[in-house]
Amino acid sequence: MFEADEETFKARQFKLRKRSGMTNNLDQQIEDYLNQKLSTSEMLSFEKKLIEDPELAAMVKDLKAIEQGLNAVGMDDFTKDLKQWEQELKAQSQPSSWQRYLAVAAVVTLVIVPAIYFFTSQKPTSEELFLSYYQPYQEMITSRGHSNDSLAILLADGMEAYSRGAYQVCSELLESYMQKRPDDHRVALYLGIAQLEINQQALAESNFQRAQQDSNFKQQAQWYQALSYLKFEDSEKARDMLNSIIASKNHYRRTQAQRLLDQLQ
Fold this sequence. Notes:
Low-confidence stretches: 1-7, 17-21, 93-99, 109-116
Radius of gyration: 20 Å
Order of helices and strands: HHHHHHHHHHHHHH
Structural class: mainly alpha
Number of helices: 14
């Protein structure tokens, strides 16, 4: 589930700071981005940075996975303790920032979180299940190539933003594309996932339904629609969709859907 480990994280952090001289202001931007505290204009500006800077994008992606892992198992008190340690380090004028707490959290997540899932008997919440099963779908549509077609460029830019995790930018670009190509149902899947990432529930679910009109993406759209219901705590609709997936013997997510449904009961 997690792509980050302590060494990878530290290497990325060191390389990024050495190359660009990461400032405390950027530290704060990253934290506000992860906590969804940026305004729309600030988010667009930051996601532009993610598109332009692969190292920054990779580190932010790792940090997001760590935060989700901690939140998924109800470790709010633990994360508060780590943040308190960070404040104490700052008070001692050490060169650490909030990333040190996340670097420690990465190790804790990788080592302790699986154990918590294994030993706990507490029924997971819908959001915890969502976080356990959710991963953005792999980008499989297109690359820019040498096309001069404006629509092709718009689609390529949108999918590049998707690959970088710049979901606000992706959503706006793919929405513009879909306005001109409403019959391109495959793109609706990626647009729906981008909207799911930025908590646009109704738009995401509408696009997942639209994507199901493309036989090549129908099963994927069904799976993400079920996960969307979980994220927004509509367990009844999630069960209905999961049962629909299970009923399809050749569905690529049939096994996971059965396991998820069992945990949701």
